[in-house]
Each structure stands twice: as C-alpha cells, then as structure tokens.
Design brief:
binds 4-fluoro-L-phenylalanine, 19 helices
Amino acid sequence: MENNREKWSSNLVFILAAIGSAIGMGNLWGFPYKMGVNGGLPFLLIYLAMVVLCGVICMGVEMAIGRKTGKSPILAIGEVAKKFKFVGWFGTLSAFIIMGFYSVLIGYSLRYAIGFAAQLLLNLDGFNGAASGAEFFVAFTQEVPAVIFYTFLTFALCAVFVAKGTEGLEKFNKVGIPGLFLILVGIIVYNLTLPGAGQGYTFMFTTKGLEMAGAKFNFFNAVRTAGGQMLFSLSLGMGAMITYGSYLSKEESIAKNAWIIPAFDTLAAIFAGIAIFPAVFATGNDPAAGPGLLYMTMHDVFTSMGAVGNLIGLLFYVLVIFAGISSAISLMEVVSASIIDGRVAKGKKTERKTVVMLVALAMFIISVPICADQLGIPGEGGAFWGIYSYLADGSKDLLDFYDMLTEGFMMPLGALLMCVLVGWKAGFPWMKDEVLADGKKWKMEKFFQICVKFVTPVLMAFVLVSLFLSYLGI
Ligand code: PFF
C-alpha cells in the first residue's frame, strides 16, 4: 500500500539512523563485559551466530512490516493481523520503559562531559574535589534534583531533533555516527600506547574473564546472554525498526540493509571493548559492567592518565552522548510516530511538535523514579523504591528492573511474536513480496524463510524462557 508519508532522503541516512538506534549504551557497557565473563572468543562466536540467525532476520522482518504498511508499530502490526496488534502496544510500552533509564544515563554522561570540559578548557575542578570516581558518582547520584535536571536536558535535546521528523533524525545521525566511530578509533589507537593495556585484550578475547568471574564456560548461559544482548543492542523486538522502516523508500534493499546494520553494530560493540578494557586494566581498575564501569571506573581511568585524561575523558563522554542520543531519539520516535499515525487515521492534523513535547514529558515522568532511586547505591535494593527487591535478591536497583523487564522479557517476546506473525500468520510470501519490491533480488531468500519460520522463533523462545528463569536465579 502506498501512502504519502515522509521518507528518508537517501538509503545512507536510513542506515545511519538505524545504526544510530542500534549503537548505544548496550554496546558500551553491556557487550564487552558480557563477552569477557562469558568466555571471550567462544562467546563472540555464539553472539555472531545469534546475530545471523535472529538479529538479521528480525531486522528484515521489522523493516518489511514498517515499509509495507508505511506505519508505526501499533497500526502496522494491526494491519498485518488484527489479533497481533497488542504486540505493537507492547513494543511502544517497551520504548517508554527503556527510555525511562536510558535518559538518566545520558543525563549522567552530560554531567561528566561538562566536568571534563571544565577541567580541560577552564582549568577548573570539574568534579567538586572528589578523591575518586566512586566518591563523585555516589555524591552526584544522591543529588536527585541535579540528576533530574540533566535528565530533563536530555529529553529537551532529543525532542529538538524528533520534533523535526526524519529531517531532524537525519541531521543528528549524519554528524553523530561518523563522529562516534572517529572517537572510538581515536581512543583505541591511544590505548595502544598504554603500558599494561594487553591485559584488557586478554580479558575480552580469552577465557581469562571467565576465570576472573570464578565461572566455567556454560554454553546455555552464553546463548541466553548473547540472545538478550543481541536484541537490546540491535533495538529489536519493540518496533523501532518498524518505525524507521516505515520511512524507507521502495527503491532501497531490505535484504542488504538487514545485514549492514547488525554488522556495524557488532563492530561497534567489539570496538567499544578494545576502547575501554585496555585502559581499565592499564590503570589497575575493575572491569565490572553497567553504570559503575561507565562512570566510576572510567572516571578513575581518565584521572589516572594525568592532563591528557581530561581530553580523552571529554571525548569519551561525548562519544557516550552521541551513542545515547541517537538511540534515545529512536525510542522517542517510536512512541511519537504511533500517536501521529493514530491522529492521521482519525483524520486529524499531525501536530508533530506538540505530540513530541507531550511524549517527552510523559517519558520524563517515567524516568524520575530512576533519578530518585540513585541506582540503589546507598541502600540495598534501591534508595527510594527498591521495587526490584520484592522480585529478586534485593541487591539490584530499579534500573536493573526496567532493564530486565525489557531485555529479558518484552523484547524476546516481541521478536518471537513478530516472527510468528510474518512466518506463519501473514506467511512468508507476504514478506517476500515486500523485499522483492521494485524488482529487487534476494540471494538469501531460502535462508530467511527457514529462519523466520523455524530457527529464529525457537531460539527466541529459548532466550525468553531461560532469561526469565535466570532472573529467578535458576
Ligand atoms: N540499541 C540500544 C543500545 O544498544 O544501547 C538500545 C535501544 C535503543 C533499544 C532503541 C531499543 C531501541 F528502540
């Protein structure tokens, strides 16, 4: 079905935007550490298999649903099969929840970038005289109004771009994504000069990480960890790629784009590891994952580098901000586009600016409990809310809970249901028709067909059940 919906100005900007959505915090703090503690190279191979057997397939499925219907997730999925419409709602809810913690992390990064900029450019003390990364981070996370302020700033920044539609998304990604790769490569090259950096490569690529975590290689554990990570990292299972695909013109190749985006995302994840770990080990720091690594540890790393650390630190947090915002704008776009499409369907004006402002405001409200939870640092299970402690062992915080809910449950379920929708309900010819639009060729057609019907749903079901069990400690 054709419609006169706005379109990306070229395939390149679509690829940049989709890569921008994919590369984010997941690549920076999640992948390298998970690779290290799950077996190094064997984990990488399992991850690559997951990307090929599920990531590429789901990417193709989502882009096809989006482009064929020309709509955002709720209406798009509803158009393919009414009974599956709830999958679109589910995805939109996931976008809300992910943005709830994502925005807070970008807000933290803004504070760190400002701190390092103040030290570098104005010779000021950018971190209130804190003696260590941990001291500053704990104090900063406890300053809830400041955290709320930086989170608000993040939403304002994202809204400026999303309010302009594809034009705004293009503008950000055209600068942000090449900039991100440039800074990554710069830091990787700098790392080569650090004495003791070799341990970082060893941690990531050999079984040393497993030994440090006191664990033995566990194939099933590696598969479920790789599965959840792959979905989060590629922004799959919740409709982001349906939304971006809906702006894609029929002249462009879904078959090719479904490979290009995962390839760059995986490259960025590996680059992130070799940009972060050598410096962490060279300065005698702990590689543990999560906000702790991104803020406390990396802060110590830059401080211990001396004067040049201010420059590398500033570049690093600008990198995190680029990666974060290009992902966050896709989350905001999923929800905004759904509302806009709903308005258009009712014959109303789009009012994109107002819609985006209201969406940003609603998402901001969801993020406030995360700001107030202070990452659970001062007390067991979260300073204020501790919701997670009712569900697990009490050592986690609200951010972990939001993350578990999305990466561990909503995304694998969404991916599974979308495969069933296209592989079984609508049927493979439905997808084939879209991929072959405009006289395209599809070399891997048979492979896609087998995966979308059998391999991907089975693997997604495994990831869904086993990740859920792992959260219950099983
Ligand atoms: N892919 C992002 C990351 O790896 O950090 C997270 C994400 C962004 C997930 C956008 C979903 C999404 F729609």
